[in-house]
Amino acid sequence: MSTKIAVFGATGGVCLAAVKLLLAEKKYKVSVLVRSKEKFENLYFGDAIADDKREFDKNLEIFVGDVYDEDDTNLKNVIRGSKMILSGLGALPKISFSLFPSRWFQFSQPHICEETGKIILKAVESLPVEERPSRIIGISTSGLDHDVPFLLDSFYKAFLHVPHQDKAELEELLTNQTLIPEVILVRGTLYTTGPTTRKYHATEGKKLGYTISRNDVGHFIFTQCIEGDEWVGKKPLVTY
Length: 240
Ligand SMILES: NC(=O)c1ccc[n+]([C@@H]2O[C@H](COP(=O)([O-])OP(=O)(O)OC[C@H]3O[C@@H](n4cnc5c(N)ncnc54)[C@H](OP(=O)(O)O)[C@@H]3O)[C@@H](O)[C@H]2O)c1
What we know:
The protein contains 8 helices and 12 strands. It is α/β, with parallel strands linked by helices. The protein has a single domain, classed as Rossmann fold. The chain has an 8-stranded mixed β-sheet, with helices on both faces. Strands 5-6 form a two-stranded antiparallel sheet. The protein has a two-stranded parallel ribbon with strand order 9-11. The longest helix has 16 residues. NADP nicotinamide-adenine-dinucleotide phosphate (NAP) binds next to helix 1 and strand 9. It holds the Pfam family NAD_binding_10. This is NAD(P)-binding domain-containing protein. InterPro entries: NAD(P)-bd_dom, NAD(P)-bd_dom_sf.
């Protein structure tokens, strides 16, 4: 039987890349919760939609819903029976050009990672023990432990304090919970839309890289966090 992986944030670049790699492998069943099926299909199938060459993969299960929905039936369906949860939920900042640099990045959902982390854990708790996942891979960020070069650290402190506090709270939540025994917190540097190079560093120490493509973070998650066990209980920094 295929191993089921539950994915939240599958329309984001990192999780989408991981989903594509998982489904290409043919031994996984992937279950995603997305707010727009159309958006996910456009991203997943790309040009194949226009050419009408899309092939629905029998190993892909798409549930439509918002993690915050009061009716959490679909959220539970995504998780039920999965071996692992991958969550890359997040909210992009609104960027505005103000005379005051502190107003350049505005965050309308400052606690989204912590809040959705709690919602996911509550759903896991409601499932019978045999239907619960044994691993959760949470997408966090670099910059929480002075693990990046000085310039990037300064940029983070000046502009990204709010989402970084949220990621720190997500890390604390997942690290201290006892429902899911294996936790991996993936800390990427600044994301780019570049290709999959496979030439990145993954480490628990400080690294001099500034960026990493979403595709390479997805590749790291698939090859080393889902297929491999070496990062369980760790917070790998992924960067070029
Ligand atoms: N940008 C960076 O440099 C950087 C660096 C390190 C870490 N990160 C973090 O890495 C993670 C992944 O980033 P990414 O760029 O791949 O993705 P992203 O563009 O931040 O996408 C976020 C995902 O979360 C989904 N989402 C948000 N709220 C939701 C809700 N209430 N219910 C269901 N889905 C919801 C979005 O769905 P919709 O498509 O429906 O909006 C989207 O799929 C994020 O947590 C991000 O903060 C980013």
